[in-house]
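hi! just following up on the protien thing from before. the input was this:
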Amino acid sequence: GPLSTRRLMDVRLGELPLWLATRDLSPQGLLGGVQKAWSRYCDKYINVRRGGAAGISMLLAGYCILSYSWNYQHIKCYRWRKYH
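and the predicted 3d structure came back as:
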């Protein structure tokens, strides 16, 4: 596609000066770029519409790790008492 419509990650190193020349570097243009980046970030990480087993399994794994770390001293002492 045209250079002006490409994202930064799609631009080759040799094309970088030409790509920067097509950008709007005025304060209003920079503010618009920041707003666009923030909305993309929110859509990707915060306003996630699809759910599934991944989120629930991560929550369950986090609970197991946290529970084990809270009870580690008790488990360690029980393990030593068990065979001695």
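The mean pLDDT is 82.
Helices lie at 16-22, 27-46, 53-70, 72-83.
cheers
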